Amino acid sequence: LMAIAAGILALELSRLLAFAAGGLAFWLAVRAVLPNANELWICFLIGGILGVLLYRLWTMLLTSFLGTLIGWHAGLTLWSSWRGFNAVEFAEAKRVMLNVCVIALTLLGVAVQGGIERWRHPREDDRTRKKSKPSARAKDKERAKASSASFTAEYPTLESELPAEDRDDSRPASQASASSSILGRMFGSKKPT
Predict the structure, then answer these.
(1) Which long-range contacts (CB under 8 A, 24 or more apart) does 186-190 make?
(2) C-alpha to C-alpha distance for 68 and 60, rounded to whole angstroms
(3) Are 158 and 184 contacting, i.e. CB atoms less than 8 angstroms apart?
(4) Separation of alpha carbons 113 and 119, rounded Å
(5) What is the predicted pLDDT for the residue at 105?
(6) Closest to 180 measured CA to CA, from 170, 169, 189
(7) Which among 26, 167, 173, 193 is least buried, having the fewest CB atoms inside 10 angstroms?
């Protein structure tokens, strides 16, 4: 029970930290652009609200960025230990290329995480769109119903609708065999008596 309470508190604490981090980041950004601005607490509140509203995006960006950084550092360290390659000189010489690669892989990670999330938990709109779209089997059933309706309208299936000489009076009209009456009517054959 204590673990559940701690987990719930951690989730709420992460939202609180997202509010504080978003507010602080927005406040620092506005302060850098407008150094003489007054009433920066409004910027803190706006940034905090954006931090909470975009919580999922921020967490995806943060996890993707951290994963990319750890991956690059591990890869460069591994490469330098195997090949006798100086990773520090390489990083200093190719600084812009490494930064662009980190940004690109971070955005790719966010896209992959968003795709996985959407695949695991489709929105209600996607579910109703898939349900409302008729399948090939449903279309075939509709065509079969339409063709049988036109065939039934053309050829009566109840023996009560048949001429008197074609009727089988030994059974009720509701139990009449539709196929025999239709075939008899189509080919003009009379039933044996």
Answers:
(1) 186/155, 190/165, 190/166
(2) 12
(3) no
(4) 10
(5) 94
(6) 189
(7) 193
pTM over 0.70: no
Instruction: For residue 22, give every residue at least 6 positions away whose Cβ sits within 8 Å of its Cβ, in sequence order, or none.
Output: 47, 48, 49, 50, 51, 52, 54, 58
How confident is the chain (193 residues) per 10-residue block, as mean pLDDT? 78 85 90 84 89 88 92 88 84 91 93 88 67 62 65 53 56 50 55 49
In angstroms, the CA 160 to CA 163 distance is 8
Q: Which helix (H) or strand (E) holds 34?
A: none
- Contacts within 8 Å (CB) and 24+ apart, 78-84: none
Interatomic CA distance for residues 161 and 77, integer angstroms: 90
Q: Write down the pLDDT at residue 174.
A: 47
